[in-house]
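thread: overnight batch results

M.L. [08:02]
morning all. the overnight job finished for the chain we discussed friday. pasting input first so we're all looking at the same thing
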Amino acid sequence: MPIKINAAVALLAALMASVALPVQAGEASGTEPTVATEASASDPVTATMRASVLRPRLDANGLPLLGDDGKPIVDDVAVEEASVVPGDVVHYAIEIRNRGEAVEDLGIAFPIPAEMILLPESLASDVPADFGVTTLANPEKTIPVFAANKDAKIVTPEFSVAATEGLSSLSVSIDEVRHETAARITYQLTVR
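M.L. [08:03]
and the structure it wrote out:
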């Protein structure tokens, strides 16, 4: 479901569990967010989000179907259609599409429920982006997830400590989403 990004600041409504995700761009980061609405064809920037889990494909007897390699065949199932249980890994994919002028300094914050653990190695973006987290103890301070290194994802010691204290949100800062392009962000959370 496309969601309108209202001017410089809006809330991205997730497709599941009525979670609201703040989206901020440019210098408006200090302004109050407004509620996102359904996108229309005239909206220059839209965002979509999908949350899914992997489930084995079952035969008529409820047993996993096996592929030619002898491994279970798995399907990517939307969380709305699956029961999520402890140990499951929930895959999140967000696409921000820009049909208008270039958008600079785009910031998005995703809540991390207390029942879930962020898998830092899963964080990815197809455009240059920085990832940070906030903790339950200090929600005002953003802690970088990765050290500045262009060749590898090296988790910062600060993130490692913060992860043990309980995370409250994941933030993504994107330098620019150019005209007529899209940015894709993916990450995973494990259910405790």
